[in-house]
């Protein structure tokens, strides 16, 4: 099981057809950006958006940010062309919508056969059908490009006919299952968007909930949301201090061969050592940004 090796605290979407937003993304502090061809793009702009996404990836200039293209589903008039264009452009990730089964993921993986090896498959978790199949889907990480689950709470609310309200009660079991399936198979798990662009308090509360559930980061739809997501998903000063003391304790000669130690009056085991190393690795990368 591979823990996430880089920060993915904020994943900022923008319509790929919005040149101003794409250009602005090169200077925003988002850890990842998603050039959207799907829901944020109207049907008559699909071809233009596809060309713009490919051009943006080729042009680069995104620095440490991961660059992801979100394609339309293969059962739409645009899906096959989107996947072919994304495979040729070779971004860090290709995000695909509305998967319902492991077979769907295999089909997207096959459509990306010609993409560079470092192009990973990210999938939206946003249908009712996929919910009981999350672990089977996540298991494909071992044999495909699949690397990341992204919660699609807006589509999920629509399909369930549930209300997406503060606290997100109807979705909590699905958030738990998504994170658990991701962790079981070493995937990254990104939480869904908060639609209220300028309600910083609501976003902060929802991001804190995502942290509590174990997500690696949160989807964002506006520059104003990025710093709030980054702050929520960065290890706190206390967590970093704890991690350092755990790593220091396990590094002492008298810790050699031991599986459990006492640190600051509490038991820590090798699992905490691994957790502490992960926190320090992520914190060091955040420090460098
Ligand atoms: N990414 C990058 N830049 C963005 C952005 C985004 N998602 N949203 C807005 N901006 C930029 C604007 O271009 C503008 O730049 P400027 O100051 O250089 O002119 C600035 O941020 C302020 O934008 P603002 O006027 O507050 O937003 P808006 O009213 O023009 O747009 C939305 C609001 C919701 C339409 C827009 O934020 C958006 O398209 N978000 C992404 C939607 C999306 O991708 N959804 C799919 C996933 S759920
Ligand atoms: Mg969706």
From TrEMBL:
Q: InterPro entries per the record?
A: Aldolase/citrate-lyase_domain, Citrate_lyase_beta/mcl1/mcl2, Pyrv/PenolPyrv_kinase-like_dom, Pyrv_kinase-like_dom_sf
Cross-referenced Gene3D superfamilies = Phosphoenolpyruvate-binding domains (3.20.20.60)
Q: Where does substrate bind?
A: 70, 126
Residues binding Mg(2+), per UniProt: 126, 155
Domain HpcH/HpaI aldolase/citrate lyase: start-end pairs: 9-223
State the Gene Ontology terms under molecular function: lyase activity; magnesium ion binding
Recorded hits in Pfam families, A to Z, give: HpcH_HpaI
Q: Which biological process annotations from GO are given for this protein?
A: oxaloacetate metabolic process
Top-rank taxon: Bacteria
State the UniProt keywords alphabetically. Lyase, Magnesium, Metal-binding
Question: Which cofactors are required for activity?
Answer: Mg(2+)
Q: What's this protein's family per the entry?
A: Belongs to the HpcH/HpaI aldolase family.
PANTHER family from the entry?
A: CITRATE LYASE SUBUNIT BETA (PTHR32308:SF10), LYASE BETA SUBUNIT, PUTATIVE (AFU_ORTHOLOGUE AFUA_4G13030)-RELATED (PTHR32308)
Spell out the protein name for this chain. Citrate lyase subunit beta/citryl-CoA lyase
